[in-house]
Amino acid sequence: MAVKQLKLGLVGATGMVGSEFIKILQERQIPVSELRPFASEKSAGKSLHFRGQDYPLQTLKEGCFVGLDAVFFSAGGSISKIWAPKAVQEGAYAIDNSSTFRMHPEIDLIVPEVNGDLLEKRKEPALIANPNCSTIQLMLALAPLQKKFGLKSVRVATYQSVSGAGIEAVEELKSHTLAYLNNKEMEPRVFRENIGFNNLPLIGDLEDSGYSNEEEKMIHESRKILRQEDLKVSAFCVRTPTINGHSEAVWAEINKSIEKEEFLSALKGAPGVKVHDGRSDSYTSNRKCDGTDPVYIGRVHRDYYDQKTWLFWCVADNIRKGAALNGIQIAEMIFDINNK
Ligand SMILES: NC(=O)c1ccc[n+]([C@@H]2O[C@H](COP(=O)([O-])OP(=O)(O)OC[C@H]3O[C@@H](n4cnc5c(N)ncnc54)[C@H](OP(=O)(O)O)[C@@H]3O)[C@@H](O)[C@H]2O)c1
Q: To test ligand 1's pocket by mutation, which of 19, 22, 36, 40 has the most ligand atoms within 8 angstroms of CB?
């Protein structure tokens, strides 16, 4: 059977996530017969290079998605809110990276390796939500444990790089680091405080619950993706002065008392996961994961006081598996494109 050639739209094509989409479409040799890249007015007149061709950047307007099979949205929540439903009305699947629709009960929130089966019922264009970057990597680690042993509770502390806040945030980390080294102070623009050589223990806005909205996303999205409403999840999210790769220290309480070998073997064959076995001093750092696809799990050990609680370090490239790669894998499932 001939492989379907896809007609794709990419909203936010010049951004951190948008640029990674282009790279991954190329790497995975996704069959593309048409590409429509969209950005803001600021990028008017520029073009995007893909497979030897220059595609002019377009701005969003009524009818701009007609004829497309799927549109990836990574231009922020306010753009997705208006334009993602329009893409569906105009006949395309909308795969949305923002948080706008994630918790809507009728919208699927997909990590392909975990709950990709939900896409089988989608025979018509629909809006599909891509989860939060820190949630995605956690799901790849937790799903095999849930399947094999049952999960009771999860606690996670995150160490999130600045690339998670977009291109301007990366520039801010670089300039603020240089300024600090030169004994100068710069006004923060993206972050609430200077990010150079600093940890900021509040990502997004503070909610009435005392959690930040980033932490709330991890809590609620995890339960939805794992389809376990009684799962107790707690998160504490911290922005660190690192460029790319999100790291997480995880405490997972399972329903069984098992040996470490069993714990590791549940993770070893899991899709998208690379687990360090052997000694507990083995791990992947965020710099080592940069530019790669897997979710790495290391430093696995049992809790001192609770037989059924396991600690581990979980790291992934937040722009790839945490955003663009996950979105492309969703499209591969929808359009039945076999890939690695
Ligand atoms: N970074 C991550 O790790 C990550 C992970 C998961 C989800 N996300 C989500 O993905 C989205 C984008 O994040 P990012 O990190 O790629 O941000 P970014 O680097 O700041 O890029 C933003 C993109 O949106 C475009 N844009 C802005 N206003 C627009 C408009 N009116 N019409 C069309 N395009 C417009 C920008 O185009 P111009 O260049 O023309 O301004 C740019 O291409 C956000 O919703 C974010 O929450 C990010």
A: 40
Would the CB of 139 count as within 6 Å of ligand 1? no
Read out DSSP for 163-213? GGG-HHHHHHHHHHHHHHHTT-----SSSSS--TT--BS--SPBPTTSSBH
Asked if residue 119 and residue 231 are part of one domain, the reply reads no
Q: What is the CATH number of the domain that holds 67?
A: 3.40.50.720
Cα of 252 vs centre of ligand 1, distance in Å, is 33
* Residue 20 belongs to domain spanning: 6-131+323-334
In a domain, 254, yes or no: yes
**pLDDT tens for residues 63-114?**
999 999 999 999 999 999 999 999 999 999 999 999 999 999 999 999 999 9
> Which residues are marked as active site?
133, 246
- Is 290 inside any structural domain? yes
Note the pLDDT of residue 285.
95
Best residue among 10, 11, 16, 60 to mutate for probing ligand 1's pocket (most ligand atoms within 8 Å of CB) is 16
